[in-house]
Design brief:
By secondary structure, the chain is an alpha/beta fold. It has eight helices and five strands, in the order βααβαβααβαβαα.
C-alpha cells in the first residue's frame, strides 16, 4: 500500500462541504493500493504548511506528498515571493527524505479578476515544480478545458456567492486528481517491477 499525504488549505480541507475531494479519493483509491491521508486544514496558507510538513513526514513516512496550497494564500494575501519560497522549502524537505512530491494548482474562478490573481500563484506552483523536478498537476488548465468541452456553467460548481467549491465541484476535482494519482502509482509499480527483474 502506497501512502499519500495531502497538505493544503480550504480546498483540500473541504471548507463549506461535507466531503472534500480528498475524502472522495480516500475511498476510491483504497482498492487501488493507495492510502490517502488528508492533512489539509481550512483557512491555512503555505506558511502553515512549512511548519506542518516535517513532523508529519516523520510520523507517516509516506511514498508521496501532494502540496495543494494557493487559494488561501491569494486571499490573505501572502506575497508571491513568500509563497514560492514556502513551496520550495516544503519540496526540498520532502525530497531530502526521498519522498515523491506533487504540486497542484486549483480550479478557475467565476470572475476574471480572481483568475488573474490566482494565475500569479499558479505560475509560481508551476515554476517550482519545473525547477525542482516535482510532479505538476495543472488543475486549473484541465478545469478550464472541461468547462469548454462540455459547455458547463462554471457557477454550478461553486458555493453560492463564493469562490469555494460545492459538492459537485469537489467530485469534479476528485476526478482530475484521481487520474494523476493513478498515473503516478502505475509508473512507480512499473519501476519497481523493472528493478526486481534487472538482469533477467
Amino acid at each position: 500500500m502506497l501512502r499519500v499525504l495531502v497538505f493544503g488549505g480550504s480546498i483540500p480541507a473541504g471548507k463549506g462541504v461535507r466531503r472534500a475531494y480528498v475524502k472522495i479519493l480516500e475511498k476510491e483509491l483504497k482498492n487501488e493500493g493507495l492510502e490517502v491521508i488528508n492533512l489539509a486544514e481550512k483557512e491555512t496558507t503555505s506558511f502553515d504548511g512549512v511548519n506542518l510538513l516535517a513532523p508529519e513526514l516523520e510520523r507517516w513516512s509516506p511514498w508521496k506528498v501532494v502540496i495543494h496550497y494557493g487559494v488561501d494564500d491569494m486571499y490573505r494575501p501572502v506575497y508571491r515571493s513568500e509563497f514560492k519560497e514556502n513551496l520550495v522549502h516544503m519540496c526540498r524537505r520532502a525530497m531530502e527524505r526521498k519522498v515523491r512530491v506533487a504540486l497542484a494548482t486549483s480550479h478557475t474562478f467565476n470572475h476574471e479578476y480572481e483568475n488573474q490573481i490566482a494565475g500569479i500563484y499558479y505560475r509560481a506552483i508551476r515554476e517550482v515544480a519545473m525547477d525542482l523536478g516535482c510532479d505538476y498537476i495543472p488543475v486549473h488548465m484541465i478545469w478550464e478545458e472541461l468547462m469548454k468541452e462540455d459547455r458547463r456553467k462554471p457557477g454550478t460548481f461553486f458555493i453560492e456567492n463564493g469562490s469555494l467549491l460545492n459538492e459537485k465541484g469537489h467530485r469534479l476535482l476528485a476526478g482530475i486528481m484521481k487520474y494523476h494519482f493513478m498515473k503516478n502509482a502505475e509508473t512507480t509499480a512499473e519501476d519497481n517491477h523493472g528493478s526486481n527483474h534487472k538482469g533477467y
